[in-house]
Design goal:
The chain is mainly alpha-helical. It has a domain of 109 residues. It is built from 6 helices and 3 strands, in the order βαββααααα. The chain has a 3-stranded antiparallel β-sheet, with no helix packed on it. It is globular and about 50 Å long.
């Protein structure tokens, strides 16, 4: 969690900026895990700053939280919107990244990350859910996504095959 102004940064453009297959696969995989619908050619939500790729504006991720009632079902979706991802054509190492990221994003690591979210950031529901209840749902959602990562990886691979 952080905020940093990237003075002098440029909007990422796939025609101008080259991204290697591993980096593209990492970004596509992460966005598929988080169900981020907002990294398309029309709005890449990526910047180039000091010759490095920066991912910004994750506000369209984890969209299941707009309807808490079906989060279990949403955790298992293949995420068909990945077909519109700006980096999908370059993401040729999705299986390799899946293996690597499954080892990094363990249940303990997911819990550590989600438990770092301040209560104030989780006091936005009108229901009776406490910040800890919401954290628990996020943790369970992400753990389910990780357990079934082959579902969204296969979806991304099939969508990529249809593009190239």
């Amino acid at each position: 969690m952080g905020l940093h102004f990237l003075s002098g940064s440029l909007t990422f453009d796939p025609i101008v900026h080259q991204v290697d297959g591993k980096t593209a696969s990492q970004v596509v995989w992460l966005d598929a895990l988080l169900t981020n619908v907002d990294r398309t050619i029309k709005n890449t939500n990526m910047l180039i700053w000091h010759k490095e790729l920066w991912l910004i504006d994750h506000g369209a991720s984890l969209y299941f939280h707009h309807s808490w009632t079906n989060w279990q079902k949403q955790a298992l979706v293949p995420f068909v919107q990945i077909k519109d991802h700006v980096l999908l054509p370059f993401a040729d190492k999705l299986e390799e990244v899946d293996i690597e990221f499954r080892q990094i994003l363990t249940s303990d690591k997911i819990r550590e990350i989600v438990n770092a979210i301040p209560d104030d950031w989780l006091n936005w529901t009108e229901g009776t859910e406490t910040p800890q209840n919401l954290r628990d749902i996020y943790i369970r959602f992400l753990e389910e996504r990780m357990k079934h990562s082959e579902t969204f990886v296969n979806e991304a691979q099939n969508a990529r095959k249809a593009l190239i």
